[in-house]
Amino acid sequence: MPAPAIHIGPEPLAHLVEAVEDGGGRVVALAEAEAIVWAGSEADFPDELPERVRWVQLQSAGIEPWVERIRATPDGVQFTSAVGAYATQVAEHALALLLAGVRGIAGYARAKTWDRHDDPVLDGSTVAIVGAGGIGRELIRLLEPHDVKVLAVTRSGRDGTIPVDRLDEVWEAADHFVIAAPATDGTRHLVGADALARMKPHTWIVNIARGSLIDPDALVEALRAERIGGAALDVTEPEPLPDDHPLWDEPRALITPHVANPQATMDRDLAKRVRENVRRFAAGNALLAPVSRESGY
């Protein structure tokens, strides 16, 4: 069987060329391609694809800018995302944010005096992970030494997880939340005023998914009123967060500038995913992280 013809765009980056070739493919011009590895934005993607193209690999785990493009592409073209490829790094960052928030590290770092507080600990608490996909599963593994009870929430409630239609119960039951669900029309402002009102006064919310999952106005109000313990955000709405946004001045907010997945490890992990999917494509096997046109992720 001839090696599959793979186009890498918008530029033939060296680590992706190596990954394609290691996976058994050969790098070709777009006109010759039967598959595409795309490491650019949706805006730069070709308006028309060669008739032979049957698969497109995207570099991102979150693909909300691509949804309409994917739905408009002929059904014979399979898109795959990078869901799960970056799970370890993002889950590690989520745990760091959770520990920093719960243990009061952000407040101590800002303080200019020796002022001790009786901060809670993570051990023995209940942590809800909303969106128990690749990142969520990796975070569950990282939480194992901490003696926490994990409530894993998924859309379907598969494999013993809690279905999303029971979230009202979870808002009240958990001590802390990690938001790791995909950004869709159905998850926009999933954490809003009602959800925040149901949470415990010591609750910390960590968001490593997309900023749109949390209503920023409702969050600012809840933080100012001290209705929750705090929020640790690697993603925000809007993003980048404007310098004059009230969240920057909120002592109960801990913000990192969308750095949960560093570029150096992103290149490495994307290459690993490309290598494996090229192997699968060449063998006619199911690809990792296929995108559902219906759900948009």
Write a concise keyword list for the protein shown above.
2 domains; 297 residues; Rossmann fold; 9 helices; 12 strands; single chain; 7-stranded parallel β-sheet
Major pleated sheet: 7 strands, parallel
Global outline: elongated
The overall pLDDT average reads: 96
Helix content: 25-40%
Number of domains: 2
CATH homologous superfamily of the largest domain?
NAD(P)-binding Rossmann-like Domain
Strand line-up of the largest beta sheet: 8-7-6-9-10-11-12
InterPro entries: D-isomer_DH_NAD-bd, NAD(P)-bd_dom_sf
Keywords: NAD, Oxidoreductase
Protein name: D-3-phosphoglycerate dehydrogenase
GO molecular function: NAD binding; oxidoreductase activity
Give an overview in words:
It is a single chain. The protein has helices at 14-22, 67-72, 87-102, 105-110, 134-143, 167-173, 193-198, 216-224, 263-283; strands spanning 5-9, 26-27, 35-38, 55-58, 78-80, 126-130, 149-154, 162-163, 176-179, 204-207, 230-233, 253-255. The chain folds into 2 domains: 5-85 and 263-283, 3-Layer(aba) Sandwich (Rossmann fold), CATH 3.40.50; 87-255, NAD(P)-binding Rossmann-like Domain (Rossmann fold, 3-Layer(aba) Sandwich). The model has no long low-confidence stretch (mean pLDDT 96). The chain has a 7-stranded parallel beta sheet with strand order 8-7-6-9-10-11-12, with helices on both faces. The chain has 297 residues and is α/β, with parallel strands linked by helices. Helix 5 links the parallel strand 6 and strand 7 (149-154). InterPro entries: D-isomer_DH_NAD-bd, NAD(P)-bd_dom_sf. This is D-3-phosphoglycerate dehydrogenase. Keywords: NAD, Oxidoreductase.
